[in-house]
Amino acid sequence: AKKSGRNAYCFYEKRMTSHATEALNIESDLRKALLNDELCVYFQPQYRLTDGLLVGAEALVRWQHPTQGMLPPAHFIAIAEQTSLITAIDHWVLTEVCRQLVEWRSRLGCGVLPRISVNISGRQLDQLNTAQEISRITHDNGCQPQMLCLELTESFLMEHDEESTNILKELSQQGFELAIDDFGTGYSSLRYLKQLPFNTLKLDRSFVKDVIDDEQDAAIVKSIIALGQHMNLVVLAEGIETQAQADFLIAQGCEFGQGYFYNRPLPADKFESLLRTIFDE
Ligand code: C2E
Ligand code: CA
Ligand code: CA
Ligand code: CA
C-alpha cells in the first residue's frame, strides 16, 4: 500500500509539473505571438432569423501557431486570463477589428457596415481607465463606438461591482452596444440585467444545443427569450446548428442568431466576400 501510495504521489507531482510547464510555455509563446503578429481574427456572421438579414458578426481570436497550426481560443484564453496578457489580446483584437472595418468601408464603398462584436474579458475591467482605453483604441483607429458591440460574460460581472457598473455606464454613454454573453450560465444574472446598461442578451449555446429534444432546455430558452423581451433587450441565440433549432427560436420570438447552421467563423477575406455579395445586390 505504501508503494502504490508513493507511486500515486509521484504520478501526481509529475502531472502537476508538466501541466505548469505547459502553461508557462503557452504564456511565453503567447507573448511572442502578440509581437510577431501570429494572432488573427475570424468573423462569425449574425442574422435576423426571420428573413436572414445580416446584422453583424462576432470577432473571434485565433492563434496561427508556428508549429501547432491554427489554435482555437480554448487553447490559450484561459491561460491568458490568469495574467495581464488577456488585456493585451483583447486590445489587439479590438485594434484589428477597427482596422478591418476601416478597410472594408473604403474597399466596399458603403456607409453602413454590420456591427462587429468584440469579446472583453473581465480582467480588463480591473483597470480604472478601461473605458477610456477602449474608446481611445476605437477612435484612434478611425471607428466610432456605434460600429461595435462589446460582449461581456456574467462571470466577470460577479467579480466586480461598483467599478464595473461605472465602466459599463460610461461605455454605453459613449455609444458602444453592450451584450451580456453566455446568458444563463452564471449567477445573479437577473440583478445585473436590472442594474447594468445592456442592449443585448446572448442566449448561451448550451441551452440551444438540445432545445428540440430536452423539455427543460426548451423551457429555459422560452423563459430567457420572454425575459429579454420584457426587459426590452435584443435577444441573440448562439450556436444554432439546425433548421429545427432556428424554427423553434423564431416561434418563440427570438429575433437574432448565429451558428454553424448559417456560417462557421470566417477568415476576414471570406467575410468580406460575403459582404460583397450583399452590397452588390
Ligand atoms: P463565445 O464568446 O461564447 O463564442 C462563441 C463560440 O462558439 C466560438 O468558439 C464559436 O466558434 C462557437 N460557435 C459558434 N457557432 C457555433 C455552433 O453552431 N456550434 C458550435 N458547436 N460552436 C459554435 P471559439 O471561437 O472557439 O471561441 C471560444 C471562446 O473563446 C468564446 O466563446 C470566447 O469566450 C473566447 N474568445 C474568443 N475570442 C476572444 C477574444 O478576442 N477575447 C476574449 N477575451 N475571449 C475570446
Ligand atoms: Ca462571445
Ligand atoms: Ca457566447
Ligand atoms: Ca457560449
TrEMBL record:
Protein's name according to its UniProt entry: cyclic-guanylate-specific phosphodiesterase
Organism expressing this protein natively: Neptunomonas antarctica
Residues in EAL domain copies: 23-279
